[in-house]
């Protein structure tokens, strides 16, 4: 059952805490007199993250926060503003609750799991061809745009026939990749 589905703000991605949606507090019943609940959430690789939902003791609004190893999770997954985090809960047969956490990034209108990003065979082969020729411009920050275009075309190829034609063209003419740089001005 989905507990939280949140697009990260800049603060969520840079601070060591996430502004937790108040509407999701139902999944974390707090005993009387306490203002926090600790729990463990597993990611897709079964790595466990010790997290803590806290609310403030005073004031009109509870203003919940997710802390604990949140900062470590953000760092490991390289999360940034605009990424989406999904927290789910499952009531086990033994009466305990288990939690899962996942992160997604939007590419060309589609959400993809950050842990399961498709590794483009083409962008890897193009990078290898260029690097084997003694130029490492595909790995330089100035030319990350080219890698992003190659990944976009690879994903486009998966979803469309026209994209597949573009993929074939680039794949067979990897030495003449200059036209990709020309797209930067569009």
From TrEMBL:
Residue ranges of the TM segments: none
Lineage top rank: taxon: Eukaryota
Keyword annotations from UniProtKB, A to Z: DNA-binding, Nucleus, Transcription, Transcription regulation
An example Gene Ontology molecular-function term: DNA binding
Subcellular locations according to the entry: Nucleus
InterPro entries associated with the record: B3_DNA-bd, DNA-bd_pseudobarrel_sf
Keyword Cytoplasm: no
Presence of keyword Nucleotide-binding: no
Gene Ontology, cellular component aspect: nucleus
Protein name in the entry: TF-B3 domain-containing protein
Organism: Salix brachista
């Amino acid at each position: 059952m989905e507990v939280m589905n949140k697009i990260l703000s800049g603060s969520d991605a840079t601070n060591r805490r996430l502004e937790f949606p108040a509407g999701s507090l139902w999944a974390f019943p707090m005993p009387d007199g306490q203002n926090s609940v600790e729990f463990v959430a597993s990611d897709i690789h079964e790595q466990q993250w010790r997290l803590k939902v806290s609310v403030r003791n005073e004031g009109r609004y509870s203003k919940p926060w997710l802390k604990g190893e949140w900062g470590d999770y953000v760092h490991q997954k390289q999360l940034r503003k605009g990424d989406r985090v999904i927290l789910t809960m499952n009531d086990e047969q033994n009466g305990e609750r288990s939690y899962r956490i996942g992160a997604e990034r939007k590419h060309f209108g589609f959400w993809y799991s950050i842990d399961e990003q498709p590794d483009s065979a083409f962008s890897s082969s193009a990078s290898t061809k260029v690097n084997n020729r003694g130029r490492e411009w595909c790995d330089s920050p100035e030319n990350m745009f080219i890698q992003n275009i190659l990944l976009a075309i690879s994903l486009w190829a998966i979803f469309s026939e026209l994209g597949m034609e573009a993929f074939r063209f680039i794949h067979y003419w990897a030495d003449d990749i200059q036209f990709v740089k020309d797209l930067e001005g569009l």
